[in-house]
């Protein structure tokens, strides 16, 4: 029997650890019995004229407010009776919480719960304040949302206030017709009317405001009310009403002056609809461009494909919506009509990407299909595959895609489109994303369009550990070709980080260029006269970048430039912060001279330092430094590599054991010219 007791607590419940005793419930019960009891009481609290016995030490232990009041040297510290300004019923409930740690909010009236929220805020019970706020979110309804909103504004509870506003946004029409709307405070009413997401017909909003004025006549006739009436009426967007509504509904209302009415009519007739401040439906993080939400394509060929949600089963014959690319300014493009005016700031677009073609395009939005505003302009940038497009939040009902270029033909192909409002917006500058994380990745639709590798996207797969003499790098022949990476869309970049192949002590020289269209290039880094190895961090002035080209100009061992990894922007604040960069050795430690020839009979050769080394060790160093052999003179597109070309880049095996006095030279095995010519022209024919 005793053996069982050591695994059980006194109340016969399993204990977390042997020997732990949990009697918290008994402690709460004992202290709770002192609540509202004069036994051991040392202070009397006076609330609404009623005397309530209490205990200083319990109050001070539960709240900083009471600790400062009763033990902080204030006047009340030495008083036997302390008067507090608080509602009686709510204060008694608060005392029961202080003494027992328990409160049943569902058993209290809603007005008492709101009073409890005020007391928790006043007496600095932060955990209780948070718990009551969470409870009010759960029981929020039309009957209490306005009173909860007023309380949240009064106590500065922003999270609860935003939750109430979002509830009002989703139920705007019902709220306008509910009696609780008439109980809103002036500040809450004004804040609600200023929201673009409070989506209801403007004439209904105006009528509800008129009813609010009629229900608060005492305030309207007061001096403070007269000063606030015009501010409230300016929150009603008269320009969104029709002329008939302005003349038949607004004009008879006495508080709207003739000048206000005439100004609204003038602004409505002389201003484009895109410049007016519209209201729209706000559905955060939800794609509204779906047939389920009532969206449909009203312009373009093969319309059903764009919004069907299929982003996998598309090919050259099906699975996309298209339009012909022309130079006409009124090109209808592809137009998507949403079910209702909606607040958007993010569009995700999938361009047809079954080959290496690139597109250029722009996106315009409208609320009436008459006046359009351009939110995305990539008409001069090469883009491919998935496009993640951000812009300032706007009220939108029509989305128009217009292609301006296709590197293969004169047709613009869009596979899928999503439209939503998101709170996760990256930094934007000049309409372009200024990324914080690496965008040269396969997941973000970047691709290597030139360079030789066993794996097409080895350069951008994020692997910086698993590379050796045979795999894990991308290369090109010095003096011919380059390594070119295309990003999915233009980004505003200011840094690039690269990893040069560093399995031995060789060093490289290179330069880096960027482009937006694959024919106009700007150099961002020139290290053709430097000896570089391992990790490279490049900084330059921020600029739009769609394509990155790395051109090697020297390899201290052979005629091939090898690159293991590329990322942009650089994912280190400084090269000194990069742990991998700390491991790289200086270029003068290279085991071979720039010519690539080493004689084992001469211990004092160029590039070698230290004591004499046995001939066998010289041979081993020479074999290791031979490195990846030269690729074909012109590197074909990485996506169209063939086995013979890839084999040309494969690192060579160590040469035979040398004889004493023998000169070890770098072995070369270039691809035969007739094979290279056949591979290049067969690939070109297949691509065109």
Structure description:
The structure is a single chain. The chain is an alpha+beta fold and 688 residues long. It is built from 19 helices and 21 strands. Strand 1 and strand 2 (50-54) form a beta hairpin. Helix 3 (56-62) packs across helix 4 (64-71). The longest helix has 15 residues, at 673-687. Residues 1-10, 580-648 and 650-688 have low confidence and may be disordered.
List the helices and strands and how they pair.
Blueprint: H1 2-5, H2 24-32, E1 43-47, E2 50-54, H3 56-62, H4 64-71, E3 81-84, H5 88-100, H6 110-122, H7 126-138, H8 145-155, H9 158-170, H10 172-176, H11 186-193, H12 202-215, H13 217-221, H14 223-235, H15 243-250, H16 258-270, E4 296-299, E5 321-324, E6 334-351, E7 359-366, E8 373-383, E9 386-406, E10 411-420, E11 428-429, E12 432-433, E13 447-450, E14 474-477, E15 483-500, E16 508-515, E17 521-532, E18 535-555, E19 560-567, E20 597-599, H17 615-626, H18 643-648, E21 663-665, H19 673-687
Parallel strand pairs: 1-3
Antiparallel strand pairs: 1-2, 4-6, 5-10, 6-9, 6-10, 7-8, 7-9, 11-12, 13-15, 14-19, 15-18, 15-19, 16-17, 16-18, 20-21
Helix pairs in contact: 2-5, 3-4, 5-6, 6-7, 6-8, 8-9, 11-14
| Name of the CATH first level of the largest domain | Mainly Beta
Q: Give the full name of the CATH homologous superfamily of the largest domain.
A: Galactose-binding domain-like
Largest sheet: 7 strands, antiparallel
CATH architecture of the largest domain: Sandwich
- State the helix count: 19
Task: Give structural attributes.
single chain, alpha+beta, Potassium Channel Kv1.1, Chain A, Jelly Rolls, seven-stranded antiparallel beta sheet, disordered C terminus
